[in-house]
Amino acid sequence: xxxxxxxxxxxxxxxxxxxxxxxxxxxxxxxxxxxxxxxxxxxxxxxxxxxxxxxxxxxxxxxxxxxxxxxxxxxxxxxxxxxxxxxxxxxxxxxxxxxxxxxxxxxxxxxxxxxxxxxxx
Amino acid sequence: xxxxxxxxxxxxxxxxxxxxxxxxxxxxxxxxxxxxxxxxxxxxxxxxxxxxxxxxxxxxxxxxxxxxxxxxxxxxxxxxxxxxxxxxxxxxxxxxxxxxxxxxxxxxxxxxxxxxxxxxx
Lengths: 121, 121
Hints:
The structure is a homodimer. Chain A is of the alpha+beta class. Helix content of chain A is 28%, strand content 36%.
């Protein structure tokens, strides 16, 4: 058992991390692109990138979720335009007429119920 | 019971939906911004926005997750720059030295284990 633990300590592991959801992700630069992927190049000490988001140099940026509450129209538009060629997933709020329409959503599109009020389409 | 069902059918509900994760979200326009929120203004019939993402006019765009695989450096940079003032969450891949460093991540930052290899920081 002890030998296994020693082995585990020496091993290099790859973990997938999710940062906090916060505004003002400043104080870092990125490098890479294309097949290579996007990596954190430099993180300024004491910056939000370091203190709030816990970004570290060398981290690979897999995805960014941008929340659209209180966003300027122009900024939302730019983000949507620049991300158009790439894989995206949207989270939407939709008003539906009631049970009947909800059942229509369920039957016509693939979905996974996440909460009572949340479905994937 | 029947009366309850009738009532449920007349009710207007608000649901939160997640779209498919796909590239090429074209064929829609947005409106709004600020306190109001961002809403889908127009969706072109037969467009990816309609067919793949199932966007509907009037949907509120709560968030967009942009995946950085095969993204151009310049586009990633623009997306990060435009989203800086707003609430964001990053998904990262990090190489760690092994068990010891993993325990360090666990002890110093708040996290929620999602899978064996996935932690929230």
